[in-house]
Sequence to fold (437 residues):
Amino acid sequence: MADIRIYKRGKVYQYQFEIASVEGKRKYINKSGFKTRAEAHKEGVIAYNNYYNVGKRIQTQDMSYSDFLDYWLDTYSNLNCKYATIMTYNNIIKNHLKPNLGYYRISQIDSKTIQEFINNLYVKHGFSKWYLKNILKVIKGSFKYAYYNLGYIPDNPAERVHIPKYDVVTGDPAHIFTQEEIERILERFKDSHSIYYSFLTAYYTGMRVSEVYALTWDCVDFENKTITINKNIIKKNQFGLPKRKNITKGHSVGVWYYGTCKNEQSRRTISIGDKLVKALKEYKKEQEDNRKFYGDSYLKHYEKKVINEITNKEEIKIVDAKAELELALPEAQLVFVKENGQFLGTDSCKYAFKVMHYELGIPCRFHDFRDTHATRLIEQGADIKAVSKRLGHSTIMTTYNIYVRVTDKMETDTVDKFEEYTNTLDIPNTVDKPYLD
Fold:
């Protein structure tokens, strides 16, 4: 690469190469800070090729699918998807795609190869329809990017691939709590206040689990009886993406961050009733008393602005410190914390759900509070548009198709309404009439 110059500046090395002139003046790309000449030359070659290959069809016949998946994650998924989605993609790629398809050149893989791979997963592993769809989604997304966006391949072989037919219809995982079950749940956790009040809030609002545990006191308006949902809480690997590191047992690698809402409609302000207002007022007073009781040992949380290493965008990380250590950061007024102030995020309720399942015998997920809230509202005749807005859905059909279940009461009410309508009909009585010969 005669066009790339490598020279020393002080104790470090720098590369330089000429680019297009602007207004007749010669322009260059320079980068310094390399410890060795070889390192500067290597990075200079990469930068030179990237510059001179812009707009050209890159020859990729030797690129493995494994390498392309890494490229797709770095240049597309990590920039456009939410953290949980990125981690799901990483796991699928690591556990399924790289071991089975990664060693092929991307130009070699055709529809037959992909379809046989999907069929094999279906037959040998018995994955659920949902999980198999996610695997195929990653394949289709990566090949679509290679074909439409980059022109690395002459066509998209994944377009014609489909998952096998599932004859057995999987049951609805949702469980709509009865009033008696809700009473039993709240009675069981009445002494674990962070759990009790988070469950109560979820039941009375239909908020998602990540929205409930992201709630801060400034979002609760007692005077106007509203709750504003403007963020969620997510747990990220402290070593970043897509790395996974094993460290000493007993030490968590998770760090809590504020995340953006699921969609534009998820940012909303909802009304709450007197029961929840009263309960949250009591809980806030108790929390203030706990802060005084624990004093310097109380665990406080702060909002630290950091730069995301992937997107280069600002985000807020939750850091904690005992009250005796005052940090020059805004305090995070998190609602659902333990008695001593400790914040466990969505991990708070993991043990509680084991208790509900094994001790109380109630099938459960946190999302069932949301399902129950929506279903009971519809059951009581609430307007579907109002329910959809309350839940933060983008369309009314989402509310109907996913969250609203037909209960026994709704079935009975439907029959009763038809009976009420037909009461005005004059239906002739056929009893005691002689049969015709």
